[in-house]
Every structure is written in C-alpha cells, then in structure tokens.
Design a protein that fits this description.
It is a single chain. The protein is mostly helical and 337 residues long. The chain starts with a helix and ends with a helix. The chain has helices at 5-34, 41-71, 80-113, 115-121, 124-141, 166-170, 172-215, 225-261, 273-288, 291-299, 301-336; strands at residues 149-150, 153-155, 158-160, 163-164. The protein has a two-stranded antiparallel ribbon. A two-stranded antiparallel ribbon has the order 2-3. Helix content is 79%, strand content 3%.
C-alpha cells in the first residue's frame, strides 16, 4: 500500500511553501522598513510586525518542525529539551502572527472611526509598544507548554522526542489551559476581527453618505481624496483580515472539534478524516503566512514600485560592476599601449 495522500501532499507542498514564504516575507520586511510605500509609520510598524511573525512561523513551524523533524529523525532537533523548546516557540510565534493581525484591524478601526482618539493612539511609539506587549504575552502564555510534554522514548539514557503527559488529558487545569490555547488562537481573534471590521464598514458607509450630501450633487463626478483614502484603507484591511479568516477557518474548526470530542490529535490512521482535516488546517495556516506580500503587491501601488526597484537592484549592481571592470581593463590596456 502506498503512502497516504495527505503525506504525499505535505512532501510536495511544504518545501514549495518554505521556498516561497521565506523570501516573500523578507522582501516585505525590507520594503516596508524603508518607509517609501506611502503608509504612515504606525501602519508600517504593524505590517512589519505581521511579516516578521509570518516569517518566524515559516521558519520554525514549517521548516524546522514539519520538514527537518520529519525528514531528519534522531537529529539534535529530536532531543526532548530541544523538541519542547521548538513546540513552545511554535505556539508563541503563531500567537504573535494572529494577534498582530488583530492589532492591525484595531488600528484601522481607530484611525478611521475615532478621529479624536486617533491623535493619541495612532503613533509609531504606540504601535511599537503594542507589538512588543503582544510578543511578551505570547511567550509568557506558552510557558506551560514546556511542562506539558515529556520524552517520547529513552534510548541509552538519552531522552528523545516529545509526547504529551498523561496529566494533560486527565487534569481539569490542563484541559482549561488547552481551551485557552484554542480560544486565543484563533477563535477570539476571529470575533475581534469581525467586530472591528463590521463597525469600521458601518461608520465609513454613514460618513461617506453624509460627505456626499455635504458636497452636493454638482460635485458627484469630482474625485474626493478623503473618500479615496478611505477606500484604499478598507481594501487593504479587508484583504488582509479576509485572507486570514478564510485560511484559518479550517484549523479553527478542526481544533475546536478536537477539544469538544476530547480526541487525541493522531492515533496512527493517516486516512482518518480528523487527521486529514487537522493537517489541511496546518497547510492553509502556513499559506496564510505567505499571502500578505501578494496582497500588498495587488492593493498598494507604491509597494509594487518598491518591489520592482528592489528586484532590479541586484541586476543594476551587476551591470555597474561589469561596466567598472570593463573601464578598468580599458584603462590598463591604454596605459600599456
């Protein structure tokens, strides 16, 4: 009997996603850090934070945990101490990726809907404080992960692998912690994103209607810079949050059903629908860490221009080096003559 279809899909999908995801997020971080995309410093901080968290998810959750651990068994990554740290870090970076998206949605909500509060909240310093706080809380929340796993096996007094301790499935405290993990990423973020986006749209529709009435019917055909800015903000907000929800929904449903049914994640049957749903959720979750670059390229004109400039810069450097080398050779030849 051949390998299960889900395993074959992972063998093909994971390396491709890693190959695309790492440079895509690195390029996004570089472009946004330059500050030439016409975005405010506050927005740029959130978007750089999201790209950084997505990059960490691709590196640790996908490359280290899914690819290296699977293909290189009994490497140093399989030591129980290292394995526990990897699981702990995976949990933290996923929380960061999710909650940075929530903070971006809240930032858009505040900047569009509350002009008075915007002056105090909508600053680069506030954005940095928010992202640092989320990072610290994400790592603090995951500390218990270090104590919920023991060695999967012991060979020659060396502990290998990670396996959930019995207490995780029997003690109410661990059951509560498991639910906290599920609710915090991504069920509660789903609710916050839906709330902020719905309120933002409602307020913008009302404001636009009032603005059109104030401008009068004679100016309907003239462009309105304020409404155009709002439209771009809404497009960016909805593409990012909508992509996040669509790609995370499978993982959210799978995690929730696993908790409600009190089933173990994997029991040896690769054709089990629960296992396939969980792994499919992971695949889509990893994909969500690669989509923001495409979203920025599609929705932001200045980001596209910066991306073209960045992609051309290595070739421009090579051309300059070649020209300098040719000039240097010509100078040497003329001096010899």
């Amino acid at each position: 009997m051949g390998r299960a279809a889900i395993l074959l899909m992972k063998d093909i999908y994971d390396p491709i996603l890693a190959f695309v995801g790492v440079p895509a997020n690195v390029v996004t971080i570089v472009i946004l850090s330059r500050g030439n995309c016409g975005l405010s410093k506050c927005v740029s901080v959130y978007m750089v934070a999201m790209a950084t968290a997505d990059l960490l998810v691709i590196i640790f959750n996908l490359i280290v945990n899914q690819i290296f651990n699977y293909h290189f068994t009994y490497s140093f990554l399989s030591y129980t101490v290292v394995c526990k740290f990897i699981l702990y870090n995976n949990c933290a970076v996923v929380d960061m990726s999710v909650w940075f998206t929530v903070s971006f949605s809240f930032d858009r909500f505040v900047s569009i809907c509350f002009q008075e509060f915007k002056r105090k909240y909508w600053t680069k310093r506030t954005a940095i404080v928010v992202t640092v706080t989320i990072t610290v809380l994400a790592y603090l929340k995951g500390i218990l992960m270090l104590f919920s796993y023991g060695p999967e096996r012991i060979i020659n007094n060396v502990q290998w692998g990670c396996w959930p301790k019995v207490e995780v499935f029997t003690l109410p405290a661990w059951e509560a912690y498991s639910w906290i993990q599920t609710l915090s990423a991504p069920l509660i973020p789903f609710a916050f994103i839906a709330l902020f986006n719905s309120l933002t749209v409602r307020i913008i529709l009302v404001a636009n209607r009032v603005r059109r009435e104030l401008r009068g019917h004679n100016t309907n055909n003239q462009s309105d810079p304020e409404m155009e800015n709002r439209r771009r903000s809404i497009i960016l907000l909805f593409t990012i949050s909508g992509s996040f929800i669509l790609l995370w929904i499978t993982a959210a449903v799978s995690f929730s059903l696993t908790r409600l049914s009190s089933t173990v994640y994997f029991q040896g049957d690769y054709s089990d629908p629960g296992y396939i749903a969980t792994e499919s959720g992971y695949l889509l979750e990893f994909l969500s860490c690669c989509t923001n670059t495409c979203i920025y390229a599609v929705t932001q004109r200045k980001f596209r221009e910066e991306l073209k400039t960045l992609l051309k810069s290595p070739w421009s450097l090579i051309r300059r080096l070649v020209k300098n080398e040719i000039k240097l050779n010509q100078t040497k030849d003329s001096s010899h003559n």
